[in-house]
Amino acid sequence: MSAAARSTVPIAISMGDPAGVGAEVILKAAASWAGRAGAPRLLVIGDLGAMRAAAQTLKDVPHPTRWSTGQRVDPVGDTLCVLEASRLGRRSLTPGRPTVEGADAAFRYIQTGAQMALAGEAAALVTAPISKQWLNRAGHQFPGHSELLAQIAGVRRWRMMFAGRRLKLALVTVHIGLAQVPRALSTRKVLDTIELLAAHLRIDAGIANPRLAVLGVNPHAGENGLFGREESDIIAPAIEAARRSGIQAYGPLPPDTAFIRSGGRFPFDAAVAMYHDQGLIAVKTLDFDSAVNVTLGLPFIRTSPDHGTAYDIAGRGIARAQSMRAAIAFAHSAARRRAAQRNAG
Questions:
Q1: 139/174 same-domain check
Q2: Strands, E, within the chain: which ranges?
C-alpha cells in the first residue's frame, strides 16, 4: 500500500454493546475533532439505528451515515460514517437493557474491525465497551476484548497496557482471581511483559531507551524472602534477562512505594505490575477520565476507553467521552508514527 493510500485509511471503531454508552461516547469524541486540522478519519462498525438514536439525544454531534465499500472516509465533520454490521430490532436498541442479540452483534463488530485492521483496511482498531457477562451469554466464551483479538490475530504473546497522562503500565496477569496470581507468574511471562512494553514505547511512543519499573508481588517486594520468594525466584531473573538484552528495567520494587513521585515526577517511562488491581488502582486514581487500554503484541494497533458499558446511564446523554477521545487520539498518534517509520524505511 502506498503512503498516499495509507493516509486515507480510517481508524475503525467497534460500537460496543448497543445497550451501553458506546454510540454516545463515540459521537461526542468525534464531535471534539470537528473542523480541526489533522483530525483522524473514523469509521464506526456497528448499528446505524443505534448511532442515529444516540445522535438524536445529543447536541452538536456528527450525523451518522451509512458507509459503503470503496467510499472515502473524510476527517470528522458534519457526518460520521458507519459500516452497518447489524440491523437490530428495537428491543436490542433499548438503552440500559442488554440482550443476547445485542451482545452477539457487538462480537461481530469486533470481528469485522479486527479483520479490517489485519488486512490493512483500518489504520487501527478502537473498541467501545462490551459486557463480558453478556458476551458469554451470547455464546462467545472470552474474558474480554484482548483475549478475543489475540485469537483472531493468531498471537499467543500479548499483554494489556493502560496509558494515562501521568502513568503507563502493563500487566503480567489480567482477568484471574487474586489467589491464582502466584501460580500464574513465571520468569518467562514477566520477561515477555517487559519486552512487549519496551517495544511499544520505542515504536509507538518514540522513546528510544525507555526506563521501566518492575513491581514485586508481595508486601515490601518479599522482604528478602520473609513474605514470599516470587521476587527472588521469578521476577528478579526476568529483570536480569531484560537488562542483558539492553532494556532498562529496574526492580523488583515494593508495590506500596513504586509510584511515589519524588519532586512530582515519576522517574520511569512506564511500569510492569504483576496483577490487575495492583496496577489499575494506581492508573485509575491518577488518570481515570483519560486512561486508555492498549493491547500489546497484536499485529495492529488496538485501544479502548478505560470504562465499561455504563448501562445505568445509557441513553441519558451524560456519559463522559474523555477516555474514548483519548483512545482515538492514542491510536491516531501510534498509526501516524508507524506510517512515518514505514515511509522512512
A1: no
A2: 11-14, 42-47, 63-66, 79-86, 124-127, 159-163, 168-171, 211-215, 248-253, 270-273, 292-296, 302-305
